[in-house]
Specification:
The chain has 34 helices and 34 strands. By secondary structure, the protein is of the alpha/beta class. It has 5 domains: 139 residues, CBS-domain; 128 residues, CBS-domain (Roll), CATH 3.10.580.10; 104 residues, 2-Layer Sandwich (Beta-Lactamase); 156 residues, Alpha-Beta Plaits; 203 residues, TIM Barrel (Alpha-Beta Barrel), CATH 3.20.20. The longest helix has 21 residues. The radius of gyration is 35 Å and the shape is globular. The protein binds ligand C2E and calcium ion (2 copies). Ligand C2E binds next to β26, α24, α25 and β30. The site of one calcium ion has 5 residues, from β30.
Length: 855
């Protein structure tokens, strides 16, 4: 039909059209046909179009349609050349124009749109008379609306809180109620005694009635005499489709909604249905996109649905034949690439190539396609404008029933914006804002790379722990501003004293870590360390003040002291403490004897083995609240270890140990079971719905049979899977994405929810996150901490929130310690919040006391 989409979507006409599967073209078109002669000047044709608010005009000569000019064609008008406006329509129209009959079924029309690559058809009735124009959009929207209406139930619109006025109340009260409640009708209650049938009890008075009463100059009378009766009703579980039919049939605009017991619970108006619509349509599209892979692979069975999905998809879609010749593209494709269908149909997709990928890259892509039948990855392509941009591309090979390859379907999203944000997050997350040096995270990455490199080249590598002596004193006596300037200067000197391919990172506070590669031996490391200590001792001028700081440096060498990154850093740390003990202002090479800590570790390990059988483990629970409103929605189970001598040991200290020793597997299972059991107690006490969030460690997640264990714990404890959220970290998913994906799918099949914990501290690869079936993101408390003071943190959190939302995820902020934190988070639209501002983790008894389940 011939009108702008948004208009169509919200027009009442959209509702008066039956949209069942036998729908024919004649039923969905508007009879608003505009025609002109070929010689009509363009500006005249355009004027008539805008006056009548139609989006196209037919060009007719001798009662024959010779062309069409549309709003889309208007986009091609050259506004700099005034003579264009006077051109005859003939010169700019598209032709030929194809014809369909009013009797053509919609599904047939859909197929024709695809095969004939046109955007409009003229519609003729049985006698050959032109009656309208139908566009592809019309078809999609009709399907969309019907689909929407059939899927949605009336109760989705019920707001509750129906207030009926008694029949004895006056007109004045009714109008006041409508005005103040912002509603356009009120229900009038004639009382239960009067009810021959339940519906007979109620009547209705609408705005339209009031207008009529004004026109009739009616004096104030009891509503009982003025209302229409009975009130037409439907059931809460009726589909909106049925309700729409009822409204149309009876020529009414309101309907009462009865609940399961036949009680009237609300009044729903035509307007209510309309207003939720645009939004809901977008949601529906979203769901349709999810279904797209299915729809594509089942393309024979359900070509029709695929067609609709493709047409309306927000992602670019390109379908080629088996020889990779482009058959069709969708509007999103045109939006993203700048190429109209007629410009690319018949060509090879290589017209889009940016030249950035190597032939080997494409060879791998084809391997994947021919082997697994699909391929996914990031690709740089070129727009028609020449601009190169990144896209996330998913290609599926489509085979027919006999297994013969017939088509390829490519789906892609423009991820330039995602990339930018990702880069920003990475930048924020990988560098220390004060000194501009890499932070610990980036150092960890580089150290891994350097170690692999050293192993390959069989050369040495040194890790140096650099710590300023008595820095705290400077900070305390001269203030943070001076301390900060000093750190910046020290960082610059460290950087300057190293070679280009060495790394220096700030680990936090006054600690730096240096990685020297390509060393010939421990002596060379010692020489460098000596030079560094001397260099840093030179006086620093800060705000006219001469400061002298000395440093202590600890050195550990690969492969002599260890081959493992963490151990090297630990050894360097130990050596640095020894340097301090020895009187500071010096360096120390690591010696095994220093490593008394490892003995401590052994003792702890032995104790941890006994923790489970001796019942020393306990769960604490921390509430998670709605950021807006503050209701309790979830609780995170956090593990505690009551060591007989050491007292309460922090999970941060023993979880890594438990991971190393594999003890995390039985411990993790215990945590999950215990959390589920506590949840059951909550439900039995009549508690409101509450999510239980449980942390899963990497080792646990990788364990064969992890998902099966979760499944059996759910079954044994009678836990509702949907109430359980497992918290994973990004690195678990990135290590081996295909396996991780399979595991996640397995977990999702159980019905549990999945969250990414500590988000922002890992890869922060949102484009890839999109691939995983995740429900929630938890922003690490590191970023929340400075959110009310530090614009970088605030920018980062805001970026995570908006991107999380754009991927359809719920966003939780951790470590919310103050009202100011919460305030910023709320403004940024963060969904949930957790932290000391609300409550620390509590033993179950205290948790229940603070948040009583029933009440
Ligand atoms: P996490 O998953 O990030 O848990 C949140 C941590 O932040 C908890 O530390 C919690 O006490 C602390 N926290 C909560 N609110 C605030 C706040 O407002 N400010 C600050 N500064 N901290 C806050 P906790 O309990 O010490 O746990 C530390 C980590 O140990 C957890 O970090 C989690 O990674 C791990 N962990 C705890 N329980 C388990 C478990 O059962 N299994 C596994 N695999 N890991 C666990
Ligand atoms: Ca957690
Ligand atoms: Ca966390």
């Amino acid at each position: 039909m011939n009108r702008p989409e948004s208009d169509r979507l919200l027009s009442e006409e959209a509702f008066s059209m039956p949209g069942n599967d036998e729908t024919r073209v004649g039923e969905i078109i508007g009879r608003n046909l505009l025609e002109c002669a070929p010689d009509e000047p363009l500006h005249e044709a355009a004027r008539r179009m805008s006056e009548r608010r139609v989006s196209s005009i037919l060009v007719v000569e001798d009662d024959r349609v010779v062309g069409i000019w549309t709003e889309r064609d208007a986009l091609r008008v050259d506004f700099d050349d005034p003579t264009t406006f006077a051109l005859p329509v003939r010169a700019v129209m598209s032709s030929p124009v194809r014809v369909v009959s009013t009797a053509t079924p919609l599904h047939e029309l859909t197929v024709r749109f695809r095969e004939e690559h046109v955007r409009h058809y003229v519609v003729e009735d049985e006698t050959g008379r032109r009656v309208g124009i139908v566009s592809q959009t019309d078809v999609v929207l009709n399907q969309g609306i019907k689909h929407y209406l059939k899927l949605r139930r009336v109760d989705a619109l019920v707001k509750g809180g129906l207030h009926a006025l008694p029949a004895a109340a006056g007109l004045g009260e009714a109008t006041r109620r409508m005005r103040e409640g912002g509603v356009d009708a009120v229900v009038v209650d004639y009382g239960a005694a009067d009810a021959s049938a339940p519906a007979g009890r109620y009547g209705i008075l609408t705005e339209r009635d009031v207008t009529r009463l004004v026109a009739q100059r009616t004096a104030d009378r009891a509503l009982g005499e003025l209302a229409s009766r009975p009130l037409v009703t439907c059931r809460a579980d009726d589909s909106l489709y049925r309700v729409r039919m009822l409204l149309a049939e009876r020529h009414i605009r309101h309907i009462g909604v009865l609940d399961g017991e036949g009680e009237l619970v609300d009044l729903v108006s035509f307007k209510d249905i309309l207003s939720g619509m645009e939004l809901a349509y977008v949601h529906e599209l979203h769901d349709a996109l999810r279904a797209r892979d299915l729809a594509l692979s089942a393309s024979q069975r359900d070509l029709y649905l695929a067609e609709k999905v493709i047409e309306s998809s927000l992602e670019g879609v390109m379908v080629t034949d088996a020889h990779a010749r482009i058959l069709s593209v969708n509007p999103a494709f045109t939006r993203m690439t700048g190429y109209a269908p007629e410009e690319v149909v018949g060509l090879n997709p290589s017209v889009l190539n940016s030249g950035r990928q190597s032939p080997a890259f494409y060879a791998r892509m084809w391997d994947g396609l021919l082997g697994d039948g699909q391929w996914q990855g990031e690709v740089w392509n070129r727009r028609k404008t020449g601009e190169v941009y990144p896209q996330l591309l998913h290609i599926t090979a489509i085979r027919d029933r006999e297994g013969v390859l017939t088509h390829y379907a490519a789906l892609f999203t423009d991820i330039s914006r995602l990339k930018e944000t990702e880069a920003r997050i990475r930048d924020l997350a990988y560098y220390d804002p004060l000194t501009g040096l890499p932070n610990r995270r980036l150092l960890d990455d580089r150290l891994q790379v350097e170690l692999a490199h050293a192993a390959r080249l069989r050369c040495r590598l040194a890790v140096m722990f650099v710590d300023l002596d008595r820095f705290k004193r400077i900070n305390d006596s001269l203030g943070h501003a001076v301390g900060d300037k000093l750190l910046v200067e020290i960082a610059a000197r460290l950087r300057a004293s190293l070679r280009d391919d060495d790394t220096v990172a700030r680990m936090g506070g006054d600690e730096f870590l240096v990685v020297l590669n390509n060393l010939s031996g421990p002596d060379e490391a010692a020489t460098m360390a000596r030079r560094m200590v001397a260099e840093l001792r030179r006086p620093v001028n800060v705000e006219g003040r001469e400061l002298v700081v000395t440093t202590s440096v600890g050195v550990a060498v690969y492969p002599d002291d260890s081959r493992d990154a963490d151990t090297l850093v630990k050894h360097a740390d130990v050596a640095m403490y020894r340097a301090k003990d020895e009187g500071r202002n010096s360096f120390q090479l690591f010696e095994p004897a220093m490593n008394a800590r490892s003995l401590e570790r052994l003792a702890l390990e032995t104790a941890l083995h006994r923790a489970l059988p001796r019942d020393e483990l306990q769960l604490y629970f921390q509430p998670v609240m709605k950021a807006e409103g503050g209701e309790l929605v979830a609780v995170e189970a956090l593990l505690r270890w009551r060591h007989p001598d050491l007292g309460l040991v922090s999970p941060a200290d023993f979880i890594p140990l438990a991971e190393d020793t594999g003890l995390i597997v039985p411990i993790g299972e215990w945590v999950l079971r215990s959390a589920c059991e506590h949840h059951r107690r909550w439900c039995e006490a009549g508690g409101a719905p509450l999510h239980m969030m449980v942390n899963i460690s990497a080792r646990q997640f990788r364990e064969e049979g992890f998902a099966a264990m979760v499944g059996s714990v759910l079954a044994e404890t009678g836990m509702t899977p949907g109430d359980l959220t497992l918290e994973l970290t990004e690195s678990m998913l990135m290590d081996d994405t295909d396996r991780a994906l399979a595991r996640l799918d397995h977990l999702r099949a159980l019905g549990v929810c999945l969250a990414i914990d500590d988000f922002g501290t890992g890869y922060s690869s949102l484009a890839y996150l999109k691939r995983f079936p995740i429900d929630e993101l938890k922003i690490d408390r590191l970023f929340v901490r400075g959110i009310d003071r530090n614009t970088r943190d605030a920018a980062l959190v805001s970026a995570i929130v908006s991107l999380g939302h754009s991927l359809g995820l719920r966003v939780v902020a951790e470590g919310v310690e103050t009202a100011a934190h919460l305030d910023v988070l709320r403004r940024q639209g963060c969904d949930l919040a957790q932290g000391f501002h609300f409550s620390p983790p509590l033993p179950w008894e205290e948790f229940v006391k603070a948040y009583p389940p029933a009440g």
